[in-house]
Design brief:
The chain is an alpha/beta fold. 12% of the residues lie in helices and 29% in strands. It is built from 15 helices and 51 strands. The strands form twelve sheets. Strands 18-22-25-29-32-35-38-41-45-49 form a ten-stranded parallel sheet. Strands 21, 23, 26, 27, 30, 33, 36, 39, 42 and 46 form a ten-stranded mixed sheet that branches. A five-stranded parallel sheet has the order 34-37-40-43-47, with no helix packed on it.
């Protein structure tokens, strides 16, 4: 009955197609060409989940597709591919189908029943975003010019002409694989097929999906193959498909030294149950590992001006823009090529010429260690490189911006849950900017929407990452509106050392009325997060200036009320915060659920809220910290609060209108009594050092020009009141009053403010 009803609806809808334009669904390019079908989705039904015939994902990784049928069709052709292969439109689909750059479709099929209006596509990759395309066939000759145009070739901006669905996360699988002893040409693979140490609930899941006997998983063979990230690497043929003999197992463990590998190359490692017929279900946990390599001498990227550029990847149909006013050089191809290069080893250092400008126009993916910095010789002469994250051109009313993307999306057929290992990502001595960036004020004045950009973001459907070091050192950042450093997605994310040292952030934020978008360091993964994720193992924010750039918190990881077995070490010291949270409702440190055994070091910081007397309508609220529950971690129920020597000035608007560090609810002050006799151990400087110390002078007595240069007094001043060019006056006066103060003697705040601009 449902099929009959839908078919009637489809027939009725066909009559409306003839009046459509060539860009809409159901059109034909030529009079004798069939009309184009269209997948049913909320964009063209307006019914969302209430529509029983909307295209949906079922059973985790099956796509049930529905479409509008076309009169006179003999059938339909449907094809599908991973989103990142085909997201750029028609040519990307053609290239993928033709195998350009090693790409391939996930699948395709011919439907020979013209009345069929649905298709179940099963066994898709887990946790992947898939695009679908369909056309009506006039005949089963695929070259027949009367076959319809394809529906689904849109690039995402063309919402009426693309179809995208995301599969769900795979069920839990045993982690049987480990890798160690990685060299330039070899690594040791350890396989443990015993599941005896897992919980009863986990074993129930494993038994449902795998062949398990007496707590031993059935493992028949290992594959060890070259990743598409480094397609020119070689693998030892012995291990590409390696049958594991039963005699090799010792106490259900086997160790295999895989040699004959290429330097600085990435390999996929899987083990399989051959009696499971579906490939996406037949493997256990997957690993991706890179062999070692020796980075060469630093590479100087000689500045060659890019006078005309396109937005994104520069496809033939894109508009070309004159960007000669910026005298900038494009870096997209250089960095993208390096990420795939097997010749240039990980951790390569790239120098940019000081006094010159470089830029990106697309989001560069970072999945290989590197350093990007100003040439030290130029830096010694006072010349710094400027790095533009887009923001040089507009499409209509929209400023085209970009940001670095941590990790990457999976390739076709690649396990999306694989964790990418990255050694070191370092950005040093750079002035990062987005010249045309617009904030919330511009939106309210109908000038432009606030820019949705960051310095670092992640793909929502990206692979997991394990980064040894991510460091920003002696950089300035402006024009980053929506966020700064955002972690997202449902895979595991590890950063062993995350550092922001001696940087200046201004002209950022105010994406919406209360500041955000997202927080400066946004690690709030919520219920989607795996318990292993941790970017706060060694989190250092030291010696920085944050000026008049409202986002949300400095740090948030507040949504994970889960069994979290890794500790935090948070170190925030010698920073200067001026009007840091004046628009936000969240606390500066927002860590609602904290793992036991963690450490907070917060000391020698200066917090100032200041404005001119004529700046009458500027918001001046702020909050300090939110920590409510200590659980899991080392199981101690205790956290070290190393708080001391945090200061403010004697201005009218004090920081921490709520939840100061000494508050007796949802703050360190609340745990003094809870820790009882252990309080002295976990509060090494005592409760007396939790409140902010107050200097006996105002911000204008301390600094040359700390107040924002744009006022919020009337409508004419709203556009740019979070845009300040006057930060040259943000340094300490050399008066006796200042030099004799405890604040000065103890060197409170960012060191760069003590001795000059």
């Amino acid at each position: 009955m449902k099929r009959i009803l839908l078919y009637f609806m489809v027939l009725m809808s066909v009559f409306s197609f003839e009046a459509c334009t060539d860009d809409s669904m159901g059109t034909s390019a030529h009079r004798d060409q069939l009309f184009r079908p269209a997948f049913r989705k909320d964009d063209n039904t307006g019914k969302g989940s209430e529509d029983a015939y909307n295209c949906v994902i079922t059973n985790l990784n099956s796509a049930h597709l529905y479409w509008y049928t076309v009169d006179d069709a003999v059938g339909y052709q449907v094809k599908w591919a991973v989103q990142n292969y085909v997201a750029n439109g028609e040519q990307a689909w053609i290239d993928t189908e033709n195998g350009v750059d090693g790409k391939s479709l996930l699948g395709s099929t011919i439907i020979k029943d013209p009345k069929q209006f649905d298709l179940l596509v099963e066994n898709l990759p887990y946790q992947a975003t898939i695009r679908f395309a369909i056309r009506a066939l006039h005949s089963f000759d695929l070259n027949d010019p009367k076959n319809s145009e394809w529906y689904g070739y849109g690039d995402g901006r063309q919402w009426g002409d693309y179809m995208e669905l995301s599969t769900e996360k795979r069920y839990d699988v045993p982690f049987v694989l480990q890798v160690s002893d990685i060299t330039k040409n070899s690594m040791k693979v350890r396989i443990n097929r015993s599941i005896a140490d897992y919980t009863a609930d986990q074993k129930d899941v494993f038994n449902e999906h795998f062949h398990i006997t007496n707590d031993v998983a059935k493992i028949d063979y290992m594959t060890f193959t070259v990743s598409q990230s480094t397609p020119n690497a070689t693998a030892n043929p012995t291990f590409v498909h390696y049958d594991i003999p039963e005699s090799a197992w010792q106490d259900n463990v086997v160790e295999i030294t895989v040699d004959g590998l290429s330097e600085n190359s990435i390999y996929n490692i899987d083990v399989w149950d051959k009696d499971i017929p579906v490939e996406v279900d037949a493997c256990y946990n997957s690993l991706m590992k890179r062999t070692k390599g020796n980075p060469g001498a630093p590479i100087l990227i000689k500045h060659v001006e890019t006078a005309v550029d396109t937005i994104g990847k520069g496809t033939s149909d894109e508009t070309h823009y004159d960007i000669s006013q910026y005298h900038s050089m494009k870096l997209d191809n250089i960095i993208n090529n390096y990420m795939q290069d097997v010749v240039t080893a990980e951790n390569q250092v790239f120098y940019l010429e000081g006094g010159k400008t470089y830029h990106f126009t697309d989001n560069p993916s970072l999945y290989k260690g590197m350093t990007l910095r100003t040439n030290p010789e130029d830096l010694a002469k006072g010349k710094r490189a400027r790095l533009l994250m887009g923001g040089m051109m507009k499409q209509g009313n929209v400023v085209k911006t970009c940001n670095f993307m941590l990790g990457r999306q999976p390739y076709a057929g690649e396990n999306a849950t694989i964790t990418l290992d990255i050694d070191s990502l370092r950005f040093m001595d750079l002035d990062v900017d987005c010249p045309l960036a617009t904030n919330f004020g511009h939106k309210t004045e109908n000038v432009a929407d606030a820019c949705g950009n960051y310095f670092v973001n992640m793909y929502s459907n990206g692979m997991g990452i394990n980064i040894n070091l991510f460091e920003m050192n002696n950089c300035t950042f402006q024009g980053l509106v929506r966020g700064f450093f955002r972690i997202q997605g449902s895979n595991d994310f590890w950063i062993q050392h995350l550092k922001m040292i001696d940087c200046v952030t201004y002209n950022c934020g105010w994406y919406q009325q209360n500041g955000g978008g997202y927080n400066y360091f946004h690690a709030d993964l919520g219920k989607r997060a795996a318990t292993k994720s941790n970017i706060l193992k060694d989190f250092q924010v030291v010696g920085n200036v944050f000026y008049n750039s409202p986002k949300g918190a400095l740090l948030t990881d507040s949504g994970r009320n889960i069994n979290f077995d890794s500790e935090w070490n948070i170190d925030i010291h010698n920073n200067t915060f001026v009007n840091f949270l004046t628009n936000a409702n969240s606390a500066m440190i927002n860590t609602k659920y904290c793992p036991g055994g963690s450490t907070y070091k917060v000391y020698n910081n200066l917090f100032i809220n200041t404005k001119d007397n004529n700046d009458i309508n500027r918001n001046m609220g702020s909050a300090g910290i939110n920590i409510q529950t200590i659980q899991y971690g080392d199981g101690s129920g205790k956290v070290t609060f190393d708080f001391h020597d945090n200061w403010t000035t004697n201005d009218k608007y004090k920081p921490w209108a709520a939840n100061g560090f000494d508050a007796t609810k949802n703050a360190p002050g609340a745990f003094i009594s809870k820790f009882g006799d252990d309080a002295a151990k976990y509060f090494p400087h005592g409760k007396e050092e939790l409140p902010l110390h107050v200097a006996d002078f105002k911000a204008t007595d301390l600094m040359v020009a700390p107040n924002p240069t744009h006022f919020v007094g009337d409508k004419s001043g709203i556009l740019d009141f979070h845009t300040d060019t006057g930060i040259d006056g943000l340094y300490y006066k050399q008066t006796d009053q200042v030099k004799n103060s405890e604040l000065y003697k103890k060197q409170i705040g960012a060191p760069r403010l003590f001795n000059g601009k």
